[in-house]
Amino acid sequence: MNSASSRKLASRRKKARWEIEAEVFERQALICKAFANSTRLRLLDCLGKRTWGAAELQGELGITKANLSQHIAILKAVGIVGARRNGKQVYFSLLMPEVKSACRLIRGVLRAQIRNGQRLSV
To answer: N or C: at which end does the chain have fewer Cβ atoms within 10 angstroms?
Structure first.
């Protein structure tokens, strides 16, 4: 392989890596958007502990069936939550266990800010 071919190949590889990174950032933005709701964060916290039935989860969160359905749809759309049916009952679980760790990490940072008296200004 001559040097011109090597440069072309290196350029194609660099472009492919850049395209993958661009896709990763786009997906990260979508997931962060899905996280941008306190009810969904509470829902994720529950699902990080175990699988829940829909009615049970609805009761735990104190929300309507329609509201639970909306939140679940958003989390399912980004691939974070999955559902399975057993007869009439629907069960929800986390599809990405890393979400549990990420949420725990963010809450740890926020607790530290609160302990240090820092305020969030948006």
So the answer is: C
Q: What angle do CA 27, 107, 75 make, to 5 degrees?
A: 35
CB neighbour burial string for 87-106, b if at least 16 within 10 angstroms, e if fewer:
eeebbbebeeeebeeeeeee
Q: What CA–CA distance (Å, rounded) separates 46 from 35?
A: 14
User: What is the pTM (predicted TM-score) of this model?
Assistant: 0.78
Instruction: Answer for the pair 52, 92: CB distance below 8 angstroms, yes or no.
Output: yes
**Mean of pLDDT values over 16-22:** 89
The residue written with tokens 């309507």 in the block is 64
**Residue 7 contacts by C-beta under 8 Å, 6 or more apart in sequence?**
none
